[in-house]
Amino acid sequence: MKALITGASSGIGKDIAKYLASLGYDLIIVGRRKENLLNLKKELKVKVKVMPLDLSEFDNVEELYNEVKNDDIDILINNAGFGLFGEFSKTDIETEMKMINVNIKQVHYLTKMFLRDFIKKDSGYILNVASSAGFMAGPKLSTYYATKNYILKLTEAIYEELRRNKSNVHISALCPGPVNTEFNKVAHGEFHTKSASSEYVAKYSIDKMFKINNYSNIENETSYICNKICSYKNFVENYLQYSRSKNKIKELHGNSYFNFQTTFFSSICEDGTFSFSGFFSSLYFIAI
Prior knowledge:
By secondary structure, the protein is an alpha/beta fold. Helix content is about 50%, strand content about 10%. The chain contains 9 helices and 8 strands.
């Protein structure tokens, strides 16, 4: 059994690697920082192939696939990604183009190529790391939120195609809220909410990915997800009320951001039309 994990040099990707190794999976770990990957390899008691690559360069993405396509990979974890805080008119265009390359183009390419391989053998798992940002627009993080919307909708569409074909290939999307990783440092910003640990999110995502291993579980899982979204809705409303009372609303988000967020989740939970399918087997929301 073997898994390929991008963005494995830190954060959620690193902790997914550790958890899959504990389950006995050999690993191919990909990231920009070779030293971090080598240190991770030393910690693990399985076979680990290290591939230090910058996936913002598409030639490296093609190189990655060509290098590993015959390695009989069972799981693809598309985790690599980053964000950038700031008003859209003021953020650096070159950084945003790299973000689109990493958050969208390489995920699209690897998903398509490995999906074709998995369909041929009628087995395999793909986990695309999206975000709760994928459900909405994000002022001051506009490009990042847009990229996660893309990944979420792409995953949903692929899931439905696989379902209709009664495939044994499974695809899911991880949609966390703020997680304690290097995201804020790289994005040059800060969330003023409590963050989950990457260890918890990593274990949760893999456990959920394996739990939905047939389409008959969709109804129960959808109910569970809706409860999570309602919990997140309550969290946003409570945080907004607290922030107003303590005068702690930061310019980073502002009133309009939280009002939009609250309205969005309220409409999903109250109008009875929540029908996202089981590809959300790995959905995670912060509910404090």
